[in-house]
Amino acid sequence: MVEVSEVKQRMCIVNPALVDDIVPLVGGQCEIMTKIGISWNSWIKITGGLPVRHSLAHRFKARVLATAEEVEGFRRKFPSPCGGIDRAALDDAFLLP
């Protein structure tokens, strides 16, 4: 049997350059779980540039990318030649090891 302390969880960081752009999507402490699917404590870690579980980061990324068109900062940082957002570039930049 493997003890929990022996299992090393994969961790990553949400790109700090994108966090300020994501803030409007989050809402307040009471809304964050329904809007983005993470806890307030996880959001505090993300805004502080701290590592979070890989699974949480991917869930967060999926929810944010689903509403990416609403984020003005994403349109500025990841413009598509055809208009809108270059989703591949945003996807690649979202998480850091």
Task: List the main descriptive attributes of the protein structure presented here.
97 residues; mainly alpha; 3-stranded antiparallel sheet; 6 helices; 3 strands
Describe this structure in words.
By secondary structure, the protein is mostly helical. The protein has one domain (17-96). 53% of the residues lie in helices and 8% in strands. It contains 6 helices and 3 strands, in the order βαααβαααβ. It has helices at 16-26, 32-36, 40-47, 54-66, 72-77, 87-94; strands at 11-14, 52-53, 95-96. The protein has a 3-stranded antiparallel β-sheet. The longest helix is centred in the middle third of the chain and has 13 residues, at 54-66. The two termini are 29 Å apart. The mean pLDDT is 90.
Compile the SSE list and pairings.
Layout: E1 11-14, H1 16-26, H2 32-36, H3 40-47, E2 52-53, H4 54-66, H5 72-77, H6 87-94, E3 95-96
What is the overall number of helices?
Answer: 6
Task: Indicate how many domains the architecture comprises.
Answer: 1
Structural class: mainly alpha
The end-to-end span amounts to: 29 Å
How many strands in all?
A: 3
Task: Compute the average pLDDT.
Answer: 90
Strand numbers in spatial order across the main sheet: 2-1-3
- Using only CA atoms, what is the Rg? 15 Å
Low-confidence stretches: none
Give the SSE order as H and E letters. Answer: EHHHEHHHE
Q: Tell me the major beta sheet.
A: 3 strands, antiparallel
| Beta content | 5-15%
